């Protein structure tokens, strides 16, 4: 296996491991994670790859999460900007234009 294939494999393993743990996703999303400490933990769990490769993958995943969240928030704000919210029989109703 070439080094680039192995690194990609490690990156995918890191991504999969993080995706299986909602608490890690939340911590990365809130930017309250020590990347080096998380990389050491994941390296032990994965059992292969250099600490630098695992840490780089963790940082990449954190950036992806941040970008995805920003895009989702922007889309929601765009929809809600032209929407109306009403309270009917103690139930909140959101009326949004079709896009």
Q: Determine the strand fraction and express it as a percent band.
A: 5-15%
Order of helices and strands: HHHHEE
Count of spatially separate domains? 1
Biggest sheet features: 2 strands, antiparallel
Number of strands: 2
Tell me the radius of gyration. Answer: 19 Å
If strands are numbered along the chain, what order do they take across the biggest sheet? 1-2
- Which percent range fits the helix content? 55-70%
Number of helical elements: 4
Gist of the model:
This protein is mainly α and 99 residues long. It is built from four helices and two strands; from the N terminus they run ααααββ.
Provide structural commentary.
By secondary structure, the chain is mainly alpha-helical. Helix content is 70%, strand content 10%. The chain has one domain (3-95). It has helices spanning 3-19, 22-30, 35-46, 51-81; strands at residues 84-88, 91-95. It has a two-stranded antiparallel sheet. Strand 1 (84-88) and strand 2 (91-95) form a beta hairpin. The radius of gyration is 19 Å and the shape is elongated.
Task: Please write out the topology.
Elements: H1 3-19, H2 22-30, H3 35-46, H4 51-81, E1 84-88, E2 91-95
Antiparallel strand pairs: 1-2
Protein traits:
single chain; 4 helices; two-stranded antiparallel ribbon; mainly alpha; 99 residues; elongated
């Amino acid at each position: 296996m070439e080094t680039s294939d192995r690194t990609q494999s490690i990156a995918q393993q890191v991504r999969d491991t993080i995706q299986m743990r909602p608490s890690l996703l939340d911590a990365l999303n809130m930017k309250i994670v020590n990347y080096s400490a998380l990389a050491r933990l994941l390296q032990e769990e994965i059992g292969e790859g250099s600490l630098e490769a695992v840490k780089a993958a963790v940082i990449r995943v954190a950036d992806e999460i941040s970008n995805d969240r920003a895009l989702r928030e922007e889309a929601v704000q765009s929809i809600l900007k032209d929407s109306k919210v009403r309270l009917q029989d103690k139930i909140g109703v959101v009326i949004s234009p079709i896009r």
